[in-house]
Amino acid sequence: MRILIIEDEPDLLRSLTMALRDEGYAVDTAANGEDGLFSAESIAYDVILLDVMLPKLDGWGVLQRLRKTRKTPVLMLTARDTSRDRVRGLDTGADDYLVKPFDLPELLARLRALIRRTSGQTTTRIEIGEVALDTAARSVTRAGALVELTAREYGLLEYLMLHRGQVVTRTALYEHLFDEDDSTLSNLLDVHVSNMRKKLGHDFITTRRGHGYCIEG
Ligand code: CA
């Protein structure tokens, strides 16, 4: 999953970026509203964390303009907790709202909930055949036994399982799993998929030549 953080406080931006990358998310950042809006309009992020008080263009302005073209889930971060702000945020098209200072575990839980909601998933557990994935614990089991996956493999599997039954193109995988700082070569995708097949069964992920990958749901 790929997240855009639009936040002008350098310390908060840095610590959020590190925390989200530790959780396995691909993370891009913007330190003002104009740059943030440009990135948000260019890339299909899975979630955008949007600060309200921003230089150049504030969070309300970013959200208002973004909603003309994209439905990307937006979690707004604000310093003030007033019902007027909450109402304004929801009316402008924010999907969730968190007041600073916030606890990291709560932010992470809300991010996961937003991602689940967007993909139409109601629980944290997805089961396909003998493979079960828990998006809260970020764990995977096969026939009840824990499967050790790298962070990249987990991200890839989670994305494919949330889109089960659909062919997910390589382009979509690159857009959703790698951030701007990632210099990973394209052929690594095949390597990850091949390693995952060894762990999850050879037929679990099918390759659609010229199209992408698919997990039948
Ligand atoms: Ca700010």
The proportion of strand residues reads 15-25%
List the total number of helices: 8
The average pLDDT value, as a whole number, equals 91
Number of strands: 12
Identify the quaternary structure here: single chain
Polypeptide structure, described:
With 217 residues, this protein is of the alpha/beta class. The chain folds into two domains: 2-118, Response regulator (Rossmann fold), CATH 3.40.50.2300; 125-214, Arc Repressor Mutant, subunit A. 41% of the residues lie in helices and 21% in strands. It has eight helices and twelve strands. The strands form three sheets. The protein has a five-stranded parallel β-sheet, with helices on both faces. Strand 4, helix 4 and strand 5 (96-99) form a beta-alpha-beta unit. The model has no long low-confidence stretch (mean pLDDT 91). It binds calcium ion. Calcium ion binds next to loops.
Main traits of this protein?
binds calcium ion, Rossmann fold, single chain, 217 residues, Arc Repressor Mutant, subunit A, alpha/beta, four-stranded antiparallel β-sheet, five-stranded parallel β-sheet, elongated
In short:
The chain is α/β, with parallel strands linked by helices and 217 residues long.
Sequence-ordered SSE layout with sheet pairings:
Layout: E1 2-6, H1 10-22, E2 26-30, H2 33-42, E3 47-51, H3 59-66, E4 74-78, H4 83-92, E5 96-99, H5 104-118, E6 125-128, E7 131-134, E8 139-142, E9 145-146, H6 151-162, E10 168-169, H7 170-177, H8 188-200, E11 206-208, E12 212-214
Parallel strand pairs: 1-2, 1-3, 3-4, 4-5
Antiparallel strand pairs: 6-7, 7-8, 8-9, 10-12, 11-12
This protein binds calcium ion.
